[in-house]
């Protein structure tokens, strides 16, 4: 331990050597006796971590790709106490953050508490979570190198750099390398499996923002429909729609428990409850559900559509909260009852900055024709850069890689059916996909964390077991805030129950 402590200095560490990258600076400093508690909700692929008395070498390196005028910053935590477990853990980002962020630091500490060397990167873009800070070089011109860094290259660079720095520090390279992330981080993990198939032995890629170019334009669709109508229903109307849909579909999975574990078995027609009187907290009085609300619910559930009604992309499950902050049908209503749409900035960022290349573009004014063209243009221009849609994972499989994804069926940011579409596409190419990649759909789970369903707290642990002991996860347990545990099954299996035992884990719950 003493020798590692004295080795924690820039002068003791060698610069990594990565083709196409030029490493420029390296800093190293000791962090001693550091303790922190990381809740599972901030580290969604693992349970709570109580990190005590950590002792680590905190390394920051920067590099550029000569000629592109970029600067990528990568942070590496090297454990001294607890001792290194000879494994590397790459931590993914979220939103417009590739990884380097105080929230992600917590995930680094959580990994470190388990003995892992941990690494994350800013992806060569500011960690402000504001795409306006980097997306455009000038009006009309996207910074494609920055987007490429953010999308893929930085994950490879950072992980290779961390492997090299770990070897320099400990005198040996990591035995195993893992990736863990959710949302943007989930996308990064799947991108690594697609493009850098030998980089990781195991990848935990939750609620992934794959099909990136489709995702954000499609997520904007309910707002588009409201804009076209000039009608913005009260949140209470959409909440009533959601309650009615859950009520109608709840029992299809075998148990009335507030969860819709078998959404494919049920189609709820939102127009069936138009005119129903509801007590509306937002308006302070009773109102009857409007036809506009039904149209918006249909937009949120049945997929985004072009002018001729043709399908563009998936939208949300019935369990998704449509009206919460950053949800697809978020609106705001003034005291005089006039409501307007509140589109999530992530979606309009994509439309404004990347597809339209105009920071001032206002998506509210789009016709349906322009909307559909925006969708298609985004896919044409950016799918190969950040789409993360390539379903050919044969090289990842051949390299012995293992990957696990879970996706909440109540996810109001990224539709679970988009991930299912990807998994089905992988299976078309690799009929034995189950041998190296498993998808767990989680009823009632919101985006990455939260909601009435449960969180798969042992996802990462299961991944390590699969990689190192060859024990594939045949199910995952998902625990909710009330400490109820549901059984998650690898798609296309679902939890099946005898009589009224429910989806709660018991001797009688099985994956079928
Ligand atoms: Ca149910």
From TrEMBL:
It is an enzyme of class 3 (hydrolase). Pfam families: Tannase. Keywords: Calcium, Disulfide bond, Hydrolase, Metal-binding, Serine esterase, Signal. GO terms for molecular function: feruloyl esterase activity; metal ion binding. Its EC number is 3.1.1.-. It comes from the Eukaryota. The keyword Hydrolase applies. Belongs to the tannase family. This is Carboxylic ester hydrolase.
């Amino acid at each position: 331990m003493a020798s590692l402590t004295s080795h924690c200095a820039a002068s003791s560490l060698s610069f990594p050597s990565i083709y196409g990258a030029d490493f420029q600076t390296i800093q190293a400093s000791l962090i001693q006796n550091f303790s922190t508690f990381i809740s599972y909700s901030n580290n969604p692929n693992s349970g709570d971590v109580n990190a005590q008395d950590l002792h680590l070498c905190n390394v920051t390196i920067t590099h550029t790709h000569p000629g592109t005028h970029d600067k990528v910053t990568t942070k590496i935590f090297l454990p001294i106490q607890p001792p290194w477990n000879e494994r590397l853990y790459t931590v993914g980002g979220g939103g417009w953050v590739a990884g380097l962020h105080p929230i992600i630091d917590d995930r680094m500490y959580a990994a470190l508490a388990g003995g892992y060397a941990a690494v994350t990167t800013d992806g060569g873009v500011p960690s402000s979570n504001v795409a306006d800070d980097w997306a455009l070089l000038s009006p009309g011109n996207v910074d494609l190198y920055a987007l490429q860094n953010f999308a893929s290259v930085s994950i490879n660079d950072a992980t290779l750099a961390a492997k090299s720095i770990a070897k320099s520090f400990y005198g040996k390279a990591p035995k195993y390398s893992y990736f863990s992330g959710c949302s943007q981080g989930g996308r990064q993990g799947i991108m690594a499996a697609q493009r850098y198939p030998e980089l990781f032995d195991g990848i935990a890629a939750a609620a992934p923002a794959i099909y990136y170019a489709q995702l954000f334009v499609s997520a904007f669709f309910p707002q588009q429909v409201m804009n076209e109508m000039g009608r913005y229903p009260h949140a209470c109307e959409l909440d009533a729609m959601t309650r009615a849909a859950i009520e109608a579909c709840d029992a299809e999975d075998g148990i009335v428990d507030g969860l819709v574990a078998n959404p494919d078995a049920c189609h709820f027609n939102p127009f069936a409850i138009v005119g129903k009187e509801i007590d509306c907290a937002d308006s302070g009085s009773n109102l009857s559900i409007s036809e506009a609300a039904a149209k918006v619910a249909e937009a949120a559930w049945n997929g985004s559509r072009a002018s001729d009604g043709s399908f563009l992309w998936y939208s949300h499950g019935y369990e998704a909260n449509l009206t919460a902050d950053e949800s697809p049908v978020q609106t705001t209503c003034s005291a005089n009852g006039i409501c307007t749409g509140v589109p999530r900035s992530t979606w309009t960022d994509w439309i404004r900055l990347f597809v339209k290349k105009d920071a001032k573009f206002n998506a509210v004014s789009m016709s349906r024709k322009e909307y559909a063209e925006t969708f298609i243009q985004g896919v044409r221009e950016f799918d190969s850069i950040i789409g993360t849609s390539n379903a050919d994972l044969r090289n990842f499989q051949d390299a012995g890689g293992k990957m696990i994804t879970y996706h909440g069926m109540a996810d109001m940011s990224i539709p679970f059916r988009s991930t299912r579409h990807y998994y089905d596409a992988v299976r078309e190419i690799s009929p034995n996909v189950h041998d190296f990649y498993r998808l767990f759909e989680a009823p009632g789970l919101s985006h990455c964390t939260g909601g009435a369903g449960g969180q798969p707290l042992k996802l990462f642990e299961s991944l390590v077991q699969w990689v190192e002991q060859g024990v594939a996860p045949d199910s995952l347990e998902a625990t909710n805030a009330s400490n109820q545990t549901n059984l998650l099954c690898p798609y296309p299996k679902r939890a099946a129950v005898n009589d009224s035992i429910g989806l709660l884990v018991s001797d009688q719950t099985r994956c079928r």
